[in-house]
Amino acid sequence: MSQLRRFGRIALAALAFASPASAVTISNLGVSDASTSVFDDSGPVGSVAQSGTSVAANGASGFALQYGAVLGADTGGAGGGSFTETLAGSFTITFEVTEAAGAAWLVSVDVVRSGALTIVSDGSGWAEVTLGQLSVVHAGAGALVGSLDLAAVGTLTNAATAGESPDQAFLQSASALLGGVGTGAAQLVTLSFAFTASVTTVDRPGGQVQGDEGALRMGMDGALLSFTADDYPGAGSRSLAGDGILVSAAAAPVTVPEPGAEILLALGLIGLGWAERQRRRR
């Protein structure tokens, strides 16, 4: 465990002892999607880059939601050549935390990213699909201890294996704690999510101007005609409900006070600041 994370947990532990336990509530959930939106099903190139969000649960103790996305491209016919479609995934979650003035609050946050990179060989060419890192930035009330970022999945290609239709599933997860001190009024929390993905479809030299289908399947089915790489259940028998970026948050219990809480809190916060300065110097 890094020094920053270790001191951060000390600080949150101190917050847990800072005041009597109370009943934290979560409210006013908001989700905004600013991702790329493309749908082109005409001419020699077909491509799609779309996304959407849905809320599965929402209450005073927490929420659960899904961000689904699909990215796909294929060339076929004269003038197709090579083509790349990209998806700039970007969505923001806002919610409010309310706790009594001076009372500590904790919210646990979990992120899961699930789906598949899929290629369907349907021509003389090849394709590649790439999914990058998921970055999550916290702003507003409280302090986030732990990281919700997820590593890049990487690239799937059949460039060296003509005629094959590979499929690469992925399942990633991260958890963190968000902690703060109540003011008696609602405190706004913002979590911003961002990632990039791309699909390239290429005709081989001397081919018939027809690259293979490539798709990122992440909880959404595209609607391109004569295109199967993005289908559900498709390769691997995937589930629309199970794929995507799944985000959940829940109010976590806070331990009752003990003597010396103020000292623990001060030491933890001082250590957190020191560790952050050391990290920035590297």
Quaternary assembly: single chain
Count of individual helical segments: 2
Tell me the series of helices and strands, N- to C-terminal: HEEEEEEEEEEEEEEH
Number of domains: 2
Report the count of strand segments.
14
Q: Judging from the principal axes of the Cα atoms, what is the shape? A: elongated
Broad structural category:
mainly beta
Sheet with the most strands, sense and barrel status: 8 strands, antiparallel
The whole-angstrom Rg is: 23 Å
Describe the structure.
There is one protein chain. This protein has 282 residues and is mainly β. The chain has helices at residues 3-16, 261-281, and strands at residues 25-33, 38-40, 45-59, 62-75, 83-98, 104-120, 126-131, 135-140, 143-145, 154-157, 167-181, 186-202, 213-218, 244-252. The strands form 2 sheets. Strands 2, 3, 4, 6, 9, 11, 13 and 14 form an 8-stranded antiparallel sheet that branches. Strands 1, 5, 7, 8, 10 and 12 form a 6-stranded antiparallel sheet that branches. Strand 2 and strand 3 form a beta hairpin. Helix 1 packs antiparallel against helix 2. The relative contact order is 0.28.
